[in-house]
Amino acid sequence: MEFKNLKVYQPDGVFQTGELIIAGDRIVSAAPSADACDMGGLYAVPGLVDLHLHGCAGYDFCDGTHEAISAIARYQAENGVAAICPATMAYPEQKLSAVMEAAASYVPERRDAALAGIHLEGPFVSAAKKGAQNGAYICRPDAELLRRLQQKANGLIKLCGVAPEVDGALDMIEQLAGEVRISLGHTEADYDTACEAFRRGARQVTHLYNAMQPFGHRSPGVVGAAADSDEVSVELITDGVHLHPAAVRASFRLFAGRVILVSDSMRAAGLPDGAYSLGDQEVTVRGGHATLQDGTIAGSVTSLLDCVRCAVGMGIPLGEAIRSASTNPARAIGISHDYGSLEPGKLANVILLDEELEVHSIILRGQIL
After folding, report:
1. Is 21 left (phi over 0), alpha (psi -120 to 50) or beta?
2. Domain containing 35: what range?
3. What 3-state DSSP class applies to 123?
4. How far apart are the C-alpha atoms of 56 and 70, rounded to whole Å?
5. Are residues 61 and 13 in the same domain?
6. Which of 37, 86, 225, 306 has its CA 20 to 30 A from that of 75?
7. CA torsion angle for 18, 22, 27, 31 (degrees, to 10)?
8. At what angle do helices 169-176 and 143-152 cross, to 10 degrees?
9. Has residue 344 been placed in a domain?
10. Does 112 qualify as catalytic in the annotation?
11. Is the entire prediction scored with pTM above 0.85?
């Protein structure tokens, strides 16, 4: 496939008018032929990478079946996501082990997004900041538990959420920092504790601002510690529910080049309002809001591409939004050799968008969906 007259995304977040040539499942470097299709100035952006989603289309990753993983991966691909790193909820080890085994033995079909990793969001979180995590299944930080799960997952666990103030958490972070990317989240940690966690090897923050102490002028907390730690990336859920637009704009300035957009979607994404579940808890979805019975936000019902659109509507340049939804997450979990940009040699995962950011075409591993 050969395309010309495209506004092609570059890894630094800018667009250059040019061409895109695909051979097999890869992007190649070559001059376009006279028969190259003129795309009339459409945007060409890389397939997105979602590091934090729980489910969609009626399924949850913790259903622990190939059917659930495939349905999630299919829905994500159809919405421009080329690779997923779905998140678990807090559950007992037996349940999590079954989820890991299902993921390890899953083989994607042609129209499925790639299962690039697993995000172990629970169970090492703070009970006081559990958010929509099920408090009945929270446990103390335990490096050996993660290693047992990692063995079941055949190495797929790429991210692990930890509340660093919990007894034993800092030691766990130091033990695991070379094995898995540690993300601080669902935490009451103060600035000093978060800084120590980053010093010991934590490199990410789970859905910044949500389920943590607010950024105060005398108590900056995890937000302030992350701002002072240049090697740390931060997740933002730009669904129009979790964060005010001013907070999003400020975050892109404060964490320039370090933002990772995530959807945090749950099983109701893509479905009508109604009653659903998350982590064995009842969730009500109404008007784009997913909440537990006590009103706690329980994930989102959006897609990552819609989060990109929403961020742009909040004033974030398109290139920076794409960088945060593709390039940055791909680098975070070590898959940037295949994902995150449209450079020659990488997998041909491409979204063609018009000026209104509506999808013209989606190409997954070199084939048009």
Report:
1. beta
2. 2-45+356-368
3. coil
4. 11
5. no
6. 37
7. -50
8. 40
9. no
10. no
11. yes
Please state whether beta strands 55-56 and 48-50 pair in parallel, antiparallel, or not at all (unpaired). Answer: unpaired
Same domain? 293 vs 188: yes
Task: Please provide the distance, in angstroms rounded to a whole number, between the alpha carbons at the two ends of the chain.
Answer: 14
The catalytic position among 60, 63, 112, 264 is 264
Show the DSSP H helices in the chain as ranges: 66-78, 93-104, 143-152, 169-176, 191-199, 221-227, 245-254, 304-313, 318-322, 328-332
Task: Please report where in the chains the tokens 């097999």 appear, as a residue.
Answer: 24
Domain membership flag for residue 63: yes
pLDDT, one tens digit for every residue, the chain (369 residues): 999 999 999 999 999 999 999 999 999 987 777 788 999 999 999 999 999 999 999 999 999 999 999 999 999 999 999 999 999 999 999 999 999 999 999 999 999 999 999 999 989 999 999 999 999 999 999 999 999 999 999 999 999 999 999 999 999 999 999 999 999 999 999 999 999 999 999 999 999 999 999 999 999 999 999 999 999 999 999 999 999 999 999 999 999 999 999 999 999 999 999 999 999 999 999 999 999 999 999 999 999 999 999 999 999 999 999 999 999 999 999 999 999 999 999 999 999 999 999 999 999 999 999
Q: Pull the structure tokens for residue 71.
A: 């349905």
